[in-house]
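Regression test case RT-17, inverse folding.

Input:
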């Protein structure tokens, strides 16, 4: 697979500040997902940032929204950087290259994975309230986040919905680094990423004119409004 297989907007290639905010980005993504309008696809937002994007997609396409919690496995002394991700049902995806490069011992690695799982369990209770994940057997699932930085949280999400029997996995994100998009494209059936950038330094925030960290309270309010 090559990047030409990605549904993208070539006019947005390599550009920054191309979306007003996450709602605007969700609207743009909805236009690329029109074939799924008013169908029984399962849209799963990755909180917190993916929730307002997914909500706009669902609003415009008359789709139902669910939530899939995944968590980055952080480096011991850098909460912003990660070397993998965990998902429900003991799903784990690790970046072996980063683990080796950072010379993380097995004990340290397992310790950070355990911390990530604790965070995942807490957020699952917060966002899902003990509700089980839906039956995805034979379904088309659209996974939505506000961007792909390393791509590993999305890989964990893909692995989880595959384990639940999803027939087709569509990844929909407004922006992504070229490397992460290529990584995700290997595992998804379809990728929609409107703004792809290949610069050595990539930040999801740079795609947005108005960027802020979506609080858990805001994400919960949006989820409840879509219930």
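Golden output:
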């Amino acid at each position: 697979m090559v990047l030409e297989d990605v549904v993208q907007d070539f006019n947005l290639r390599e550009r920054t500040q191309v979306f007003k905010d996450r709602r605007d980005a969700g609207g743009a993504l909805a236009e690329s997902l029109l074939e799924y309008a008013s169908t029984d696809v399962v849209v799963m937002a990755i909180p917190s940032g993916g929730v307002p994007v997914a909500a706009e997609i669902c609003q415009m396409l008359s789709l139902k929204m669910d939530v899939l919690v995944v968590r980055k496995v952080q480096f011991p002394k850098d909460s912003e950087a990660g070397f993998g991700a965990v998902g429900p049902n003991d799903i784990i995806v690790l970046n072996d290259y980063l683990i080796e490069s950072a010379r993380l011992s097995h004990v340290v690695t397992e310790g950070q994975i355990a911390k990530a799982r604790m965070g995942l369990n807490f957020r699952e209770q917060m966002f899902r309230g003990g509700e089980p994940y839906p039956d995805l057997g034979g379904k088309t699932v659209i996974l939505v986040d506000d961007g792909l930085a390393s791509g590993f949280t999305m890989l964990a999400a893909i692995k989880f919905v595959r384990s639940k029997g999803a027939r087709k996995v569509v990844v929909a994100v407004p922006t992504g680094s070229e490397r992460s998009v290529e990584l995700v494209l290997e595992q998804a059936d379809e990728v929609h990423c409107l703004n792809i950038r290949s610069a050595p330094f990539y930040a999801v925030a740079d795609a947005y004119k108005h960027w802020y960290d979506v609080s858990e309270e805001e994400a919960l309010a949006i989820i409840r409004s879509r219930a």
